[in-house]
Amino acid sequence: MTDNDTPNTTRPAASAVGRMVQIRVDWFDSEWHPQFAEWVKHGASGSLATWLRPDASLIGEEYPDVFVGVDPSFSGEGTDSDMPDPYWDEVVKAAQQAGGGANGLHVVVWITPDPDLLYF
Length: 120
Known about the structure:
The chain is an alpha+beta fold.
């Protein structure tokens, strides 16, 4: 805080424009993709950006959308690069195909269930 700041005041938020990519996948089906489903369920109780409650079903009960950030260098680094490799590789590929990180910022990838691909 500076001398001009007073407690309980709000300063303007800094913002930047980046890129967001949405991918629709069948990965939330725990019978077909147990590694991904377990990773989401585990992450929902930690720092993973999702609306999913840790005790909820991945399909049917909740909106299990997941948001991850891919490093703009596409080196394989990102906010959730601990995702199982075959899935993370697809996330990085989708981010890269979208044209790269704007302003050197992470590319946000929105992973959402595709009802046309789910097997239930």
